[in-house]
Amino acid sequence: AQKVTQAQTEISVVEKEDVTLDCVYETRDTTYYLFWYKQPPSGELVFLIRRNSFDEQNEISGRYSWNFQKSTSSFNFTITASQVVDSAVYFCALSELTGGGNKLTFGTGTQLKVEL
Amino acid sequence: GAVVSQHPSRVICKSGTSVKIECRSLDFQATTMFWYRQFPKKSLMLMATSNEGSKATYEQGVEKDKFLINHASLTLSTLTVTSAHPEDSSFYICSATERTGGTDTQYFGPGTRLTVL
Fold first, then answer.
1. In the structure, what pLDDT confidence band is assigned to residue B53 with cuts at 50, 70 and 90?
2. Interchain contact A113–B (C-beta under 8 A)
């Protein structure tokens, strides 16, 4: 069975600090996808990134960066120079490939609070 | 980018009534849509997978007669909560799968907050 663990329930930082959100996953699939979503207080989940299991290159997008380590089954997310607008719940998810669509297994989420 | 809408965004109803929630992919076709339920400060719980032109696949523990799903077209799926009770009050979120370059990504709707009195 697939499982995603986000051990950090809540993180509080001061604006401009860097923060890393941890994600550890378990799967028996050799091919899978990992995702990060942001859920601001409004409730809508915003897609941030998708990474396939064959691509271990780290990715950077503006202040966001992701570190995929297949050897440790981790897909961590770092926000550099955090801002108040980054305050949200962040979910890591793992896909189970089903015909025609990917069924996602979500972690329990990490509540990030960025304060002035 | 891929946009998914949900309607209504918020609904309050009396116990015993049925409520229909619509999920639409606005700028892409989605053969697969998913319905989730989220309790306060909790993760998303997958309720069912909705495939266009076929019956929905429900997760274990989800009553199919209670939560009716209809995937009428490649851009529309509906979830009907039948004979709603206060314990059905929750935040319901749909997602639609867009396939690009042979890879699927789920895009989520803004959610529907259901309150059953």
1. confident
2. no
**A25 contacts chain B (CB < 8 A):** no
Q: Do B97 and A91 touch (CB under 8 A)?
A: no
Q: How confident is the model at residue B39 (pLDDT cuts 50, 70, 90)?
A: confident
Residue of B nearest to A108 (CA): B43
DSSP conformation letters of B66-117: TEEEEEEETTEEEEEE-S--GGG-EEEEEEEEEEETTEEEEEE---EEEEE-
Candidates B108, B112, B113: best to mutate against A (most CBs of A within 10 A) is B108
Q: Quote the pLDDT of residue A57.
A: 82
Pairing of strands A46-52, A19-21: unpaired
Contact indicator for B20, B70 with CB cutoff of 8 Å: no
In degrees rounded to 5, what are phi and psi of residue B84? -65, 145
Mean pLDDT by 10 residues, chain A (116 residues): 93 97 94 93 91 85 93 96 97 77 88 96
Considering CB atoms only, which of B34, B41, B110 is closest to A44?
B110
Residue at A1: amino acid letter:
A
